[in-house]
Amino acid sequence: MNEMENVIRLTIPAKPEFVSVARLASSGAASRMGYSFDAIEDIKVAISEACTNAVSHGYKQMGNGQIHITMDCEPNAMTITVTHNGESFDASRVLQKLRPLDPSIDLAEVSEGGLGLFLINALMDQVTISTEYGVAVRMTKFLDRDGVVHGVDKVSTTR
Amino acid sequence: MNISIEREEKDKKLNYVSVEGEIDVFTAPELKKELLPLTEITGGTLTLNLNQTKYMDSTALGVIVAALKSAVKHNCHFTVTGMSPRIQRLFEITGLMDILKKKR
């Protein structure tokens, strides 16, 4: 089987109004592959967060770049890679600082941003970030064939 | 995809904002623009209803954190209602639920 066979490629302008296009495409692909409602929603948030980071940080909202997306639909997993050639960052430093909001600190100190990568990490099964040239976020969601039942459980569970 | 923001003013100090659609990097600024002035009404009550919100991500959570901060600063009572189990999960994972509960 040709290994390229089940890969969807999409390039969108690095502008806020196109992030929903990537989200819709991921939703269609995930639905086609048989993911549960909850897993599809996880994938939609993850791809949106990666694209939002590219728009907001990679290109500083200037909208002069492009975001390259590949969705590799394997039999048991979907791997999405979101790549941009805009400004990079120190991934290891950022990844170490990933944490949810802290209710014990003063509200004025609570950050209004920085939850994007945290959510990607929480919602996807495997995440790797490469910052060698631009930024590439590679994230995998495994397809659990019994996912419908598990997915329903997951709604009420705090992870 | 756009959002439709409906605002209902019971009186000057009692406001309801309902969001229909998807809140993301494109639409979140619109919500922020609508919401923030209402959090600056001292002694007011502001309710954000997410009953018709089909999708949201960290950009929406950021707007809610900003609204909560401003509300507390201006002594305005801010609450979020109508969360779907899905949206509730995002609130819980990110810790925003604990922060909302603490400030209520």
From TrEMBL, chain A:
Gene3D superfamilies: Histidine kinase-like ATPase, C-terminal domain
UniProt domain Histidine kinase/HSP90-like ATPase: residue ranges: 12-141
Keywords: Kinase, Serine/threonine-protein kinase, Transferase
Pfam families attached to this UniProt entry: HATPase_c_2 (PF13581)
EC number of the protein: 2.7.11.1
GO molecular function ontology, one term from the record: protein serine/threonine kinase activity
Alphabetical list of NCBIfam families matching this protein: PRK04069.1, rsbW_low_gc
The protein's name: Anti-sigma B factor RsbW
Gene name of the record: rsbW
TrEMBL record, chain B:
Keyword Phosphoprotein among record annotations: yes
Domain of life of the organism encoding this protein: Bacteria
CDD domains in UniProt: STAS_anti-anti-sigma_factors
Annotated Gene3D superfamilies: STAS domain
Alphabetical list of PROSITE patterns matching this protein: STAS
Keyword annotations of the record: Phosphoprotein
STAS domain span: 17-104
Pfam families: STAS
Residues spanning the membrane: none
Similarity field: Belongs to the anti-sigma-factor antagonist family.
Record's function text: Positive regulator of sigma-B activity. Non-phosphorylated RsbV binds to RsbW, preventing its association with sigma-B. When phosphorylated, releases RsbW, which is then free to complex with and inactivate sigma-B.
PANTHER family: ANTI-SIGMA FACTOR ANTAGONIST TM_1081-RELATED-RELATED, ANTI-SIGMA-B FACTOR ANTAGONIST
Matches recorded under NCBIfam families: ant_ant_sig (TIGR00377)
Protein name as catalogued: Anti-sigma factor antagonist
Species assigned in the record: Sporolactobacillus kofuensis
